[in-house]
TrEMBL record:
Keyword Ribonucleoprotein: no
Pfam family, one: Trypsin_2
The entry's keywords: Hydrolase, Protease, Signal
Protein name: Trypsin-like peptidase domain-containing protein
Cross-referenced InterPro entries: Chloro_Bact_Ser_Proteases, Peptidase_S1_PA, Peptidase_S1C
Signal sequence region: 1-32
Amino acid sequence: MTVTEKKTTSWRRRVAAASVAAALCVAGGTGGGILATQVSSAAPVTTTTAVAAQAASTGATLTAAQVAANVTPSVVTVLASTAGGGVEGSGVVLSADGLILTNNHVVESASGVRVTLSDGRTLDATVVGTDATADLAVLRASGTADLTPATLGSSADLRVGDTVLAFGSPLGLEGTVTAGIVSAVDRTIQDGDTNLSGLIQTDAPVNSGSSGGPLVDSSGRVVGITVAIATTGQDSGNIGVGFAIPVDTAATVAARLAA
C-alpha cells in the first residue's frame, strides 16, 4: 500500500449504527491498530444472576446454518429516537426477562428506545446502564419474560483464522447473518481522546446497523460485540475490516451495568 493509498483510508467508529459515524485514526497495537475503546484486560467470563447468559464450556462445531438457527432468536434490532432523528443498531439478549446488551453509541442521547425481536414483536425498552468508555450499554425490554438468552463463550482463546459469524441489522435488514474469520486480535484504535483496545478484527461483513450485534464462534457462542468498521474515504460501506469488543470484556461490563 502506498502512502497515497493510506491517506484515502478512514477508520470509522460507530458507523455500525445507522446515522452515526466518526473518523478514526490508527492508534497502533499488536499487528496494527483500529477502533477501540478503553477496555479492561480480558478476564474469564463470570456468569451472574443479573446477566443470565451462560458461558459455555465446550461446544461441537456446527454448520453455519445450524449456528444461525440457534443464535438468531437471541438477536434484536435496537431503535433509538434522538433529537436528530433515529439511530438503528443491534443487540444481543442476555436474560429471558429482557436484559439486552448493545453499544453505548447506539442509544446515547436517546429520548426513547424500542427493540424488535426476531419473531417480529416490537417492545419498549429502558436504558439500565451505559459505559461510554467501553462503548457498551445494557437495556431492559418491557413486558416480556420469554426471551432467548445467548450463550456466551470466551474471547481469550480466539485464534487468527477461527471461523466467526456476525449477526445484526445492517442497513435496516433485520436478521442478517454474515460469515468470516478472525483476522487479528488485540487491535487498538483512537477516536479523539478515547481509545478502544483489545478488539477482535474480522472480515465477516458488517455495515451500518450492525453495532451491538453478536460475533459468534462455530459453536454458536458469543465471542464479541460488533462495534466498528474501517472504510475508505469514498465509500462508507464494508471493506472487510470490522471490529468487535471481546466478550470477556463485554460480559464483565454488562454484569456491572445490570447490577
